[in-house]
Design goal:
- The complex is a heterodimer.
- By secondary structure, chain A is of the alpha/beta class.
- Helix content of chain A is 34%, strand content 26%.
- Chain A has helices at 6-11, 55-62, 84-88, 106-114, 122-131, 147-159, 177-192, 204-210, 228-234, 246-254, 273-276, 291-300, 315-322; strands at 15-26, 29-40, 44-48, 70-75, 78-79, 91-94, 165-169, 196-201, 213-218, 221-227, 238-243, 260-261, 282-285, 305-311.
- Residues 1-9 and 325-329 of chain A have low confidence and may be disordered.
- The relative contact order of chain B is 0.13.
- Classes of the chains: A alpha/beta, B mainly alpha.
- At the A-B interface, helix 3 and helix 4 of A face helix 1 and helix 8 of B.
- Chain B: This is ABC transporter permease.
């Protein structure tokens, strides 16, 4: 699935990030045990895994914060360990939270970062400030910023050196829905300009909405790599029903051979647990194309349909499928 | 070099914006008037006892000699007192008042007393969170993911530290002089001070003693204190690299320095203690001929000990900082 044939790869855009057989041992334990993938120019690459799977450790090895025990990280052909200056020049990153100096203003933080780069002046600072839409508050102390604004400042700082590759670690953490939506559009815009974007997340739905390709990591290993639509095609599709006549609806669903009704514990395998846990909710798995005819039949039978919601399964349940029942160790 | 300057600019800016130096100035502005007042009451009571400084000096020598005659005084103290008697006699013979009041004399006295504890504490205020603060705030990640080698980052921190240590000592001298001058007058720059007393055991060799103008003495003293403060600063930087939290780093260094001053007071019997950095911080003592806390210590010895500790601190700090994994 990850290997392209030779003729195909010639048409592909340039590889910006090449991670090869990365391993890291800490105190006798292999925290990262064989991670390999590639990120190309113009694509948004998702790095999906549950908390504790080794996402952050991997990201730290990408940006030279942690030295790998073995394996290599190459950015635009430059090895991060051997030529850190040349490799890091091509990367803009936010590792975990956007960490900035609270006692400096936004502009002072940018100027600080600019002094660590070559040939970045006040004009470029103004440019990135406009790009992230922070012209109003840029001269205030960062101490007074909300998390969303810190995130914007963090992205501005990451973009300051005109990197070819942007690395964002759980970028939607702590953002409100509006902020998440803006971030998605922003990242898509950057990728449209030819930047490679690497995004880690523990939420399948987020990766599905934002990314082109994805690598799934569990227990320090890459389990699978591929296009996002291929991956979610494998995932069972869950549908949550809210019906006016619950009993009649249940009987109708039971008669449908392709639909499976799940018990009260079903909410645990879904990302949006609130929806499935609502009183009276019926959680089913069924092919998506079955939903419309079912709704029609229910309406015919006089069962009022209040809501039908497709819901993404959690990553964990997807893992169970990938590892065929082994689960996440 | 050209790419190091912006980095030093960054580190200097951070310390400044954290308002660390303001705190140091504030501490000086509060403490120096207190000491000035204490000094004023002291000289007033001296004046009441008997006008002429010569009489006071004679009295002081007589006090020491009485104490020397007593059996109950331990031998280590007697050695110190014998040395002091010889020194005071020397001043008396050459008709020079060692305690002539004036802002310069006060500053000299303040520096002598500040060298082992006060100045090192001010240095710790700057040095202790240089690296651990970045780690606690998470900003270390954005510092180390820039296209700059790690040794350059640490080098710029060392450069900023040296700059602020120098500023601290200059500020101490200026604040002392400015405030005490209000009460004692701003004179005393050219007053002669004797230096070059060679203390061996309980006797003083005065063959190398010569007088220097007090301004020169003050400059030499400030230079020596700068060197001692630099050692403290570099050790604090090393601890700051090794220890995660700023509080832990501060406490570790304070404990080390205070241990040193306690050991100095417990004195001489454990001669191995002379290799500890904190025992060697009082370099000014070699200028005015105060007997060293442990036998066998000399100016060159102490400078060498401090230099070795500083070099070791730098080697450890750079070695660890350039290699360590940033896990949190």
């Amino acid at each position: 699935m990850t290997e392209q044939s030779h003729s195909e790869s010639q048409a592909q855009p340039e590889v910006l990030l090449r991670v090869d057989k990365l391993r890291k041992r800490i105190r006798g334990r292999w925290i990262i045990d064989d991670v390999s993938f590639e990120v190309r120019a113009g694509e948004i690459f998702g790095f999906l895994g549950p908390n504790g799977a080794g996402k952050t450790t991997t990201i730290r090895m990408l940006v030279d914060l942690i030295r790998p025990t073995s394996g290599s990280v190459q950015v635009c052909g430059r090895d991060v360990r051997r030529e850190p200056e040349q490799a890091l020049e091509q990367i803009g990153c936010i590792v975990e939270n956007p960490e900035v100096y609270p006692y400096l203003t936004g502009r002072e933080n940018l100027a600080f970062a600019a002094r660590m780069l070559r040939g970045i002046g006040a004009a470029r600072i103004d440019e990135v400030v406009r790009l992230v839409g922070m012209t109003q508050r840029i001269d205030d102390k960062v101490r007074t910023y909300s998390l969303g604004m810190r995130q914007r400042l963090g992205i501005a700082m990451a973009l300051l050196g005109k990197p070819r590759l942007l690395i964002l670690d759980e970028p939607t953490n702590g953002l409100d829905p509006k902020g998440i939506k803006e971030l998605r559009a922003f990242v898509r815009m950057l990728a449209g300009q030819g930047m490679g974007v690497f995004i880690s997340s523990h939420l399948l739905s987020e990766i599905q909405l934002m990314c082109d390709r994805v690598a799934i990591i569990g227990a320090g290993r890459v389990l699978t790599t591929g296009a996002v639509h291929e991956l979610t095609a494998d995932a069972p599709s869950y549908v949550v029903w809210q019906l006016q006549d619950r009993e009649a609806g249940l009987r109708l669903l039971e008669r449908e051979p392709q639909a499976e009704i799940l018990g009260p514990d079903a909410a645990d395998v879904l990302e949006d647990t609130a929806l499935a846990a609502a009183p009276g909710a019926i959680v089913t798995t069924m092919p998506p194309e079955l939903v419309a005819p079912l709704v029609a039949r229910m309406t015919e039978a006089g069962i009022g349909v209040d809501a039908v919601q497709p819901v993404m399964p959690t990553l964990e349940s997807l893992f169970l499928k990938l590892t065929e029942g082994e689960g996440i160790v | 070099m050209s790419d190091l300057l912006p980095l030093v600019h960054n580190e200097t800016l951070k310390i400044w914006k954290k308002k660390r130096f303001y705190v140091i100035l504030l501490i000086l502005l509060v403490l120096v008037p207190i000491f000035t007042y204490a000094q004023m009451t002291l000289s007033r009571s001296d004046d009441e006892r008997g006008g002429d400084w010569r009489n006071q000096l004679v009295q002081q020598i007589a006090d020491y000699e009485n104490a020397l005659a007593s059996d109950r005084i331990p031998e280590e103290w007697k050695q110190y007192q014998r040395v002091m008697v010889q020194q005071l006699s020397y001043y008396l013979e050459h008709d020079v008042n060692p305690n002539a009041p004036g802002a310069v004399t006060f500053t000299r006295g303040f520096l002598t007393n500040a060298a082992t504890l006060f100045i090192p504490l001010l240095v710790l205020a700057i040095a202790s969170d240089l690296v651990s603060g970045e780690r606690a705030g998470g900003t270390i990640k954005q510092l180390l993911t820039r296209p700059v080698r790690r040794w350059k980052i640490l080098f710029s921190k060392v450069a900023a530290l040296v700059l602020y240590i120098s500023l601290t000592i200059v500020a101490t001298v200026l604040v002392c002089y400015a405030i005490s001058g209000l009460f004692f007058g701003y004179g005393g720059w050219t007053m002669p001070v004797f230096t070059g007393f060679a203390v061996t055991g309980s006797s003083v060799d005065t063959s190398h003693v010569h007088d220097v103008p007090q301004w020169l003495y003050l400059a030499m003293q400030a230079g020596l204190i700068w060197f001692a403060a630099l050692t403290v600063g570099l050790l604090a930087l090393m601890v700051s690299v090794l220890v995660r939290g700023t509080a832990a780093s501060l406490v570790t260094m304070m404990a080390a320095i205070i241990t040193g001053t306690i050991l100095v007071n417990m004195a001489s019997s454990w001669s191995g203690a002379k290799y500890l950095f904190a025992v060697n911080l009082e370099l000014g003592g070699y200028l005015d001929g105060t007997p060293p806390p442990i036998e066998g210590m000399s100016l060159v010895f102490s400078l060498a000990v401090l230099a070795v500790w500083s070099a070791a601190a730098l080697v450890v700090a750079f070695g660890v900082f350039t290699k360590q994994d940033i896990m949190n």
